[in-house]
Design goal:
By secondary structure, this protein is α+β, with helices and mostly antiparallel strands. It is 55% helix and 17% strand. It folds into 2 domains: 107 residues, no CATH class; 66 residues, Nuclear Transport Factor 2, Chain: A (Roll), CATH 3.10.450. It has 8 helices and 3 strands, in the order H-H-H-H-H-H-H-E-E-E-H. The chain has a 3-stranded antiparallel sheet with strand order 1-2-3. One of its GO terms (molecular function) is NF-kappaB binding.
Length: 187
């Protein structure tokens, strides 16, 4: 991970650290590593999304562990210095700055940790389509609904999950959402 961190420019690394802190403070639902990775690649750095996600997970673990143990900035930096693989100087400076400025605000109560362990629903998009034809069938005229759910997993990584439903399946899906809404109104 230290070798990959060396590749990331300091400003992008700082942005990643700040997004992780905001996620741990429940100010944002997750870290959009795909978008950040694309911007880093556009700046000329050869990094893949899997490596960036591993770094984000590692930093998230680092910050949450530091919060649980109530580490001061100096204790955190000392702990980082005693690690097996040495982090680049710019990374330690960013971590020091971000932790010093925002680290104390991380409030990891038991309830917040339980919610974070499940993941979080961020957004839902849907669209109606009609399949006109295929290789095996000349005239389908088959309506369907495509649903895309945006979800932040426990580590904060934002991913999209898409699926298609027939109209009867979508009506059942909609009915279940209406039932949930009516139950939530009684709470």
């Amino acid at each position: 991970a230290a070798d990959t961190i060396r590749l990331i420019p300091q400003d992008f690394f700082a942005e990643l650290c700040e997004q992780i802190i905001q996620h741990l403070n429940h100010k944002i639902p997750g870290i959009n590593t795909a978008e950040l990775c694309q911007r880093i690649q556009t700046s000329g750095v050869d990094i893949n999304i899997g490596d960036l996600a591993k770094i984000a997970n590692t930093l998230s673990f680092l910050f949450s562990t530091a919060a649980i143990n109530n580490l001061s900035t100096e204790e955190l930096v000392t702990t980082l210095g005693s690690g097996v693989s040495t982090l680049p100087k710019h990374a330690v400076q960013v971590i020091r700055h971000v932790w010093n400025e925002q680290g104390k605000a991380i409030a990891l109560s038991e309830d917040a940790r339980d919610v974070a362990a499940v993941g979080q629903f961020v957004d839902m998009k849907w669209k109606l389509g009609v399949a006109m034809s295929s290789d095996t069938c000349r005239s389908l005229k088959y309506p369907y609904v495509t649903v895309t759910l945006t979800v932040a997993d426990p580590s904060g990584q934002i991913t999209d999950k898409s699926f298609e439903m027939t109209i009867p399946q979508f009506k059942n899906f909609f009915r279940q959402f209406k039932e949930m809404a009516s139950v939530l109104e009684t709470v």
